[in-house]
Amino acid sequence: MAIERTLVLIKPDGMQRHLAGLSIDRLENTHLELIGVKIVSVTDKLAREHYALLEGKGPFVDKTLYERLINFIKGEYHGDPKRRVLALVYQGENAVQGIRKAVGATNPEDASPDSIRGAFGRICRKHGYYENVAHASGNVEEAEREIAIWFKPEEILK
């Protein structure tokens, strides 16, 4: 098996609700190696670069939904003027799959109860979005792309 790297973001809803530590606890239970971590203030440029591959695709053909996604990761809905996101890089065998399992399905109602999203996620019906606490890279190629967006090479342990 090849060693993989993957990105995890504890999103503004998770930061606002003080779920970073509990989320990290579940991520650490994967027994993968944490090799990069930092708190980032998400700019519009960073948000758009992160979600560039989703623009105009699937549900995000609707430009309004895409803009909501951008505003969500920037913390616009959570009242955090610092726009905090906790970015982490994990490494190990099958890291992408292991982290995705720990994070759970995108929709908190579909997520396993022992996953981050299943335990802590919720649906905000008033505003029409998921507060699913975390983002995890979907595949190895996506992970490489996202890690390069969020981290400089010298910020990750070799």
Note down, in words, how this protein is organized.
The chain is of the alpha+beta class and 158 residues long. It has one domain (3-155): Alpha-Beta Plaits. The chain is 36% helix and 23% strand. Strand 4 (122-124) and strand 5 form a beta hairpin. The two termini are 18 Å apart. The model has no long low-confidence stretch (mean pLDDT 94).
Topology, element by element:
Elements: E1 3-10, H1 12-16, H2 20-28, E2 33-41, H3 44-50, H4 63-73, E3 84-93, H5 95-103, H6 116-120, E4 122-124, E5 129-131, E6 134-136, H7 140-150
Antiparallel strand pairs: 1-3, 1-6, 2-3, 4-5
Biggest sheet layout: 4 strands, antiparallel
The end-to-end span amounts to 18 Å
Order of helices and strands: EHHEHHEHHEEEH
Helix coverage percent? 25-40%
For this structure, the quaternary state is single chain
CATH class designation: Alpha Beta
Overall pLDDT confidence: 94
Low-confidence region ranges: none
* Sheet with most strands: strand arrangement: 2-3-1-6
Number of discrete helical segments = 7
CATH architectural grouping: 2-Layer Sandwich
Using only C-alpha atoms, the radius of gyration works out to 15 Å
In total, the number of strands is: 6
* Beta-strand percentage range: 15-25%
**CATH homologous superfamily placement:** Nucleoside diphosphate kinase-like domain
- Domain module tally: 1
Query: What is the approximate shape?
Result: globular
- CATH level-3 fold name: Alpha-Beta Plaits
The chain-level structural class is alpha+beta
Characteristic terms for this protein:
globular; two-stranded antiparallel sheet; single chain; 4-stranded antiparallel beta sheet; Alpha-Beta Plaits; alpha+beta; 158 residues
